[in-house]
Write a structure and sequence with these properties.
With about 375 residues, this protein is mainly alpha-helical. It is built from 18 helices and no strands.
Length: about 375
C-alpha cells in the first residue's frame, strides 16, 4: 500500500512538472530587489567606478561645437601707380586742344542758330523803339531822321511841303518795324535753316509804304523814288539772294553749316575725341578728368566773355555815342547773349565738377599710397 501511495505521489509530482512552463534558470538563485540594492550600495566607492548607476541608461555625451578658425587675411596688394609717359600726355594735350576748338565752334553755332532764328529776330525787331532809332546818331553831323530826310529827298517829293518833323511823323505812322521784322525773319530762316527763298523787292516796299502813308498827295511812284534815293538804285540787287552769288560767296553754305546734321556731326567728332583722350592716358581718372576739365572750362569762359561783352558793351557805347549801330546791337543780340551766357555757364559748371572729381581721385590715390 505504501508503494502504491509513493507511485501516486510520484505521478502527481511528475504531472505537476509537466504542467509548469519550461525554465532553464532552475539553477539561478533568486535575490530580491531590496537585497540587491543594499548589496550594491555597500560596495566601496573605489570599487564602484566602473559600475554605472543602477536603472540609469547611458547616453553619448554631446561634444561642444567649436567653429573653424577664420582663414588668414590675404596679404595686401602692393600699390603700384600706373605711370603715363610724356609722349602720351603730349598727345592727349594736343587732342585736347583740337577738341577744345570743336567744342567752342559747336557752342557758337548752337547759340547763333537759336539766337538769330527768324522768329527770334522778328520778335526783337518789332520791339524796337522807332523814336529812338530816328533820334540815334548816324554820323557826326546827322541823326537817323535827318539822314533819311535828306537822302530820300522827301522835301522835293512832298513838293516842298514837309520838313524834318513832318518826315519823322510820316515814318512813325508807317509802322515799318512789323514789315521789316517779317521780312528779316524770312532772310534769316533762308540763310540759317534753308527756309523758303525771300522774294522782297523795292516795288513791294514802295507798295507797303504807299498803303500805310497818310500823305494823300503822294503816289506809289514817289515812294519808289524815295527807296531808289536811299539805296542809290541798288535796292533790288541788295534784296535778291540770287544777286548775292555774284560776290563769289555761296550763301547757301550757311544753311549747311548751321543745320542740325552738321551740329550732330560736330557732336559725334567731339565724343570720339573724348574717347580718344581717355584711351591715350590709359583711362587714368586723374588725367581724364583733368583734360576734360580744361576743355569745358576754356570753352565756357570764352562763351561767357563773348556773351558778357555783347551784353555790356553795346549799351555802354550807345550811352556815350548814341550811335544807331550800338542801339540795334543792344536789342538784336539779346537772344544770342542769353544762349551764350547759358551755354558758357553750363560748361563752366561741368568743368568745375570735373576739377573737383580730379582732386578727389588724387586724394584717394595719396591715401592708398600712404596706407601701404
Amino acid at each position: 500500500k505504501s508503494e502504491e501511495q509513493s507511485d501516486i505521489s510520484q505521478e502527481d509530482s511528475s504531472s505537476q512538472k509537466n504542467n509548469q512552463p519550461y525554465d532553464d534558470n532552475s539553477n539561478t538563485q533568486y535575490i530580491p530587489y531590496e537585497e540587491l540594492k543594499e548589496s550594491l550600495d555597500d560596495i566601496p566607492p573605489e570599487y564602484n567606478d566602473d559600475v554605472p548607476p543602477y536603472n540609469q541608461p547611458e547616453f553619448p555625451q554631446e561634444q561642444p561645437y567649436y567653429p573653424p578658425p577664420p582663414p588668414p587675411p590675404m596679404p595686401a596688394e602692393e600699390y603700384k601707380p600706373v605711370k603715363v609717359g610724356f609722349l602720351r600726355l603730349f598727345s592727349a594735350g594736343f587732342i585736347t586742344f583740337i577738341t577744345m576748338i570743336f567744342v567752342i565752334l559747336l557752342s557758337l553755332l548752337f547759340c547763333i542758330k537759336l539766337g538769330f532764328s527768324g522768329a527770334t529776330l522778328e520778335k526783337s525787331i518789332k520791339k524796337l523803339d522807332t523814336e529812338k532809332i530816328l533820334e540815334a546818331e548816324y554820323d557826326s553831323n546827322h541823326d537817323v531822321n535827318e539822314f533819311l530826310y535828306e537822302k530820300s529827298d522827301f522835301y522835293n517829293i512832298s513838293l516842298h511841303s514837309a520838313n524834318e518833323n513832318d518826315f519823322r511823323n510820316f515814318i512813325l505812322n508807317l509802322d515799318m518795324n512789323s514789315f521789316i521784322g517779317e521780312n528779316v525773319a524770312v532772310y534769316a530762316d533762308y540763310l540759317l535753316n534753308n527756309g523758303r527763298k525771300p522774294s522782297l523787292t523795292s516795288d513791294k516796299i514802295a507798295e507797303y509804304m504807299f498803303n500805310k502813308s497818310t500823305y494823300n498827295n503822294l503816289i506809289k511812284q514817289d515812294f519808289s523814288t524815295m527807296i531808289y534815293n536811299l539805296t542809290d538804285g541798288n535796292a533790288d540787287e541788295f534784296l535778291s539772294v540770287d544777286e548775292w552769288k555774284n560776290t563769289g560767296f555761296n550763301f547757301n553754305i550757311l544753311s549747311y553749316i548751321f543745320s542740325y546734321v552738321t551740329l550732330g556731326i560736330f557732336l559725334v567728332l567731339i565724343v570720339v575725341m573724348f574717347i580718344w583722350i581717355a584711351v591715350i592716358v590709359d583711362k587714368r581718372g586723374r588725367y581724364v578728368t583733368g583734360f576734360y576739365k580744361n576743355i569745358f572750362m576754356v570753352s565756357g569762359v570764352i562763351l561767357l566773355i563773348i556773351g558778357g561783352v555783347c551784353v555790356i558793351a553795346p549799351p555802354i557805347v550807345y550811352s556815350q555815342t548814341s550811335h544807331i549801330v550800338f542801339y540795334l546791337s543792344s536789342k538784336l543780340l539779346t537772344s544770342f547773349n542769353m544762349f551764350a551766357l547759358a551755354t558758357g555757364g553750363f560748361e563752366v559748371i561741368v568743368g568745375i565738377i570735373l576739377g573737383l572729381t580730379k582732386k578727389l581721385i588724387i586724394r584717394h590715390e595719396r591715401k592708398n599710397r600712404d596706407f601701404l
